[in-house]
Amino acid sequence: MPVSAPQWLAAIVVITVIGFQPSSTRTTTPIDWAHALHGITALGWSTTLVGQAWLAEQRRREAHRLLAVAGVLFAVGLVATALPMLASLASGALATAGFRPIGLRLLAMDCLLLALFMVLFAVAIAFVRTPAVHARALAATGLLALPAGLGRLYMRLFAIDPMRGSHLALGTAALLVGALIVADRRAGVRDVVHPLVLGAMLAVALLTGVIADAPWFAWWAQQIAGA
Question: What is the dihedral of CA 175, 178, 180, 182, to 10 degrees?
C-alpha cells in the first residue's frame, strides 16, 4: 500500500519535532521567545499541511478551504518570524571567528530555503484552481523543514557539525522528492512540479557555499546583524 501525502507529511512533522526537542526544553530567555514564536508558526504551517492533505483525500472541500485560511496566516507568520532568526544566526556567525564559516553557510542555506518556500507558496496560490500543481507545491514546502529538524537529529546521531547535518538532511529531502517522481511516473502522471523542486534543492546545495563565500554576503550579514 503506497504511503499517502498526509502520512509522509505527518512523518516529517514528527521528525522535525524530535529534531528540535532538546533545544525547545531549555530555559527560556528573551531571544528564545523569538525562536518559540517561529517554532509555533512553523509547526502550525506543517500541521495545517497535514490537515489539508487529509481533507483533500476525503474530498471535504469546504473544510479544506476553511483550513486554508489558517494555513495562509501561518505561512505569513512563518516568513515574518524567520527574519529575526536570520538576524540572530548572522550575529552568531560574525561574533565567533571559529563559527563564522559554518555560520555563514547555514545563513546562506536558510535564506535559499526561505526563498524556495515563498516561491512554492506563491505557485500554490497562483494555481489554486489547478489541484495537481496546487497540492504538489504546498506539499513540497513540508519537505523544506527537514534541513532544520532532521539536520539537528543527524548532528546528534552522527556527531557531525551543523553544516554537514543540514546538507545530509537536504539530501534526504531530495531523495524523497526523487521517490515521489518515480511514484508519479509509475502511476502515469507527467508532472513538472516535483522535478523542478528537486532541481531547486540541488541548486540550494550547490549555491550555499558559493553565496556564503561571496564578500557581499558577509557585508549583508553584518547589516542584518546590526554589526
Answer: -130
